[in-house]
Amino acid sequence: MHIDSTFSVVAPISQVWDTLMDFERVAGCLPGARILNKLSDDAYQVGMTVKLGPVTMQYKGLLNVIERNAPEHRAVLGGKAQETRGQGTAEATVTLVLAEDGAATRGSVSADLALSGKAAAMGKGVIGSVTEQMMSLFAKNLQTMLTEAAPPAQEAPAGPTPAAVPEPTPAPVPASAAEPIPVPVSAAAAPGPVEAAAPDGSLDALSLAKGIAAEQLASPVKVLGVIAVVACIAYWAGRRSAFRLLRLCGRL
């Protein structure tokens, strides 16, 4: 019995080829197929479960890679299996060829199949229909596998970061035109305690005087008051000095 089938997936041909040649991985894409044991790079112990209508058949056998031509993307596989519950057998030689089809890869499968037992009684029409359904599911699962394994698309390199434009430096404001910045009363720092203690524990009068003077001069009103007091003292001191000078001259 000769059966031909095709499938198509959207992926580079090299990626499809490498995936299909990884039999242990790709076996899960074919419904009912599984790799039981890897005997060598070209020989595998396989199992297959096939349901034809109300009949379910389980096979166990060997899969051999007869030819593997990577440059031409062509492989020839040979398999032979026997029913685990029954006397039926299946033997096939399968030729796989991949070809590029635009952005997709098309696979052509050609199989020479020999069956005995219950499967042979189904006829070529039923077997051909089941084969087409299996290949359709295989292509769908293979496409999912290829998509998940595809490397993520690289983001476009970001362009050069535009240089920051320096903000214009404001022109200096003349001192006469500058307005004082109002300071809220709550923001003004309260005068801290005056540190008047000397190292030996005695009162540091000089530090205390400096602290009091600094506190008093912090207020413009107090500054004016200090100036007025100093002027008065100077005035009275001057009068007393002049009076003393006149008295001294009278005595002479």
Compressed to H and E, one letter per element, the order equals EHHEEEEEEHHH
Number of individual domains:
2
Low-confidence stretches: 171-224, 229-237
Strand order of the largest sheet: 1-7-6-5-4-3-2
Helix percentage range: 25-40%
Number of strands: 7
Radius of gyration (Å)? 52 Å
- What is the terminal separation in angstroms? 161 Å
Reported by name, the CATH topology of the largest domain is Alpha-D-Glucose-1,6-Bisphosphate, Chain A, domain 4
β content, as a range? 25-35%
User: How is the main sheet built?
Assistant: 7 strands, antiparallel
What characteristics describe this protein?
single chain, 252 residues, alpha+beta, Alpha-D-Glucose-1,6-Bisphosphate, Chain A, domain 4, 2 domains, 7-stranded antiparallel beta sheet, 7 strands, globular
